[in-house]
Amino acid sequence: MLAPSTAPQRGLFISFEGIDGAGKSTHIPALEALLRGRGHSVTVTREPGGTPLAERLRELLLHEAMDPLSEAMLMFAARREHVLQVVQPALARGDVVLCDRFTDATFAYQGYGRGFNLEVLATLEQWVHGGLQPELTLWFDVPPAVAAARLAQARSPDKFEAESIGFFTRVAAGYAARLAADPRRFARIPADRTPAEVWVDVQAAVDALLQARQQASTPGQHGQ
Ligand code: TMP
C-alpha cells in the first residue's frame, strides 16, 4: 500500500533506538555534523513526528492516556505521513536519513511494553511502509535501572518516561527480539558508558555501513 516511489532510493536510512534514557539523541546531531562535513546531504527527523500532522499526533501520544490499539494505530498513522512526506522523498534525493526511532519502537513499546498483539503490528507495518526498512538500526542498549536514574533528572516526564522499570525491561526485551530476528540490520551499542565511548561505536557502525555501500557500488567488486 506504500505509494510506489518514482525514483530509485539512492539514500541511506539509519534509525536510532533504545529505551527512554538510553542517551541516543545526543549522538544524532554529532553524526549529522560528521556526515555533512564529509559532503553527505543529511535529513534529520524523528518519530512520532517529522511532519506537521505527525507532530500533532506526537503531542497526543506522549501526553494522553489511551487504549493500546489506539496508541499503536496513531503511531502508524504518524509514520505513514512521515514516510510518504519526508523519508521516501529524502531517500529518493540520495540523502542520508537519520531517524530518531522507527517501527522497531512500536514493536518494543506497544508490542512488548504494552503487550499488544505482535501479528497485528506486523500487518500494520506492511500496510504502512511495505518493504521499507532502515539499512542500519543503532540500538542504544542500557540497563533499565541506569536509564531510570538518568530520567529521574528530567523535569517533567512524558507518558512513556513516567513508566515503571518493569515496562522498560519489557521494552528492552522487545529490542533484543527485534535484533535476534534481523541481526544484520542492527548494531547493538552498549550505552552504559561515557558519551565519548558510545560515540566511537556509533562512528564505527556507520563507517562500516558506508564502506559496504561503497564496495557494493564500485565496479568490479560485485559478487566478490
Ligand atoms: P523520544 O522521546 O525518543 O522522542 O520518543 C518518544 C516516545 O515515544 C518514547 O517514549 C518512545 C515512544 N514511542 C512509542 O511508544 N512507539 C513508537 O512507535 C515510537 C516511534 C515512539
Overview of this structure, please?
The chain is of the alpha/beta class and 224 residues long. The protein is 54% helix and 12% strand. It contains 8 helices and 5 strands. It has a 5-stranded parallel β-sheet, sandwiched between helices. Helix 3 (68-93) runs parallel beside helix 5 (118-129), helix 4 packs antiparallel against helix 5 (118-129) and helix 4 packs across helix 7 (165-181). The mean pLDDT is 93. Bound molecules: thymidine-5'-phosphate.
Features:
224 residues; alpha/beta; Rossmann fold; 8 helices; binds thymidine-5'-phosphate
Number of domains: 1
Query: Which structural class do you get from the secondary structure elements?
Result: alpha/beta
User: What portion of residues belong to β-strands?
Assistant: 5-15%
Distance between the termini: 35 Å
* Model regions low in confidence, pLDDT < 50 over at least 5 residues: none
How much is the radius of gyration in Å? 17 Å
Q: Kindly report the CATH topology.
A: Rossmann fold
Question: How many H/I helices?
Answer: 8
Largest sheet: 5 strands, parallel
